[in-house]
Amino acid sequence: MSLLAYNSLPCPDGRFELGELIGTGVCSKVYKALDTDNHGRTVAVKIQRYEKDMITYINEEYRVLRDFANHPNLPQFYGVYRKQRDDVDEIWFILEYCEAGSIIDIIRSLQSINKRVNEDHIAFILRETAKAVLHLHENNIIHRDIRGSNI
To answer: Please, are residues 2 and 59 in contact by the beta-carbon 8 Å criterion?
Structure first.
């Protein structure tokens, strides 16, 4: 049984203006985008091919985003869309855009001006990350990819 009513998802055309590529993974790419239906709000759009062998994983990601992204230390989930063109079928997850970037981005920015993250900042980052992970674990969710570029 499919959790995600894929065939009835709205098309993102005309709503989201994709901008720069801000991340890539094995199965997806993430873009900075403007949500033209929401006063030009900046969002992150995670795009991945919708393939039959990935349906279980896509459904699970959708369920986790829909049901558990309400924690203050996790990006907000705004919705899911389907884009069809030629022989490519895509699913678009719309998420909160984290303007400062990832922790890796922040550390690199500081290094570029010969500054370092101090221990208090590291402790804060670890504590807040642990809160988010605890929220997921309390709901029987394992993240599987906790690393600096995902924080």
So the answer is: yes
pLDDT per position in the chain (151 positions), as tens?
Answer: 458 888 899 999 999 999 999 988 888 999 999 999 988 999 999 999 998 888 899 999 999 999 998 899 999 999 999 999 888 999 999 999 999 999 999 999 999 999 999 999 999 999 999 999 999 999 999 888 888 888 8
Cα–Cα distance between 86 and 75 in angstroms, integer? 32
Beta bridge partners of 88: 85
63 close to 119: Cβ distance less than 8 angstroms:
no
145 given a catalytic annotation? yes
Strands 41-49 and 77-85: unpaired
Q: Which amino acid is at 47?
A: I
Residue type, 15: R
For residue 124, the SS3 value is: helix
Tokens standing for residue 96 = 């909160």
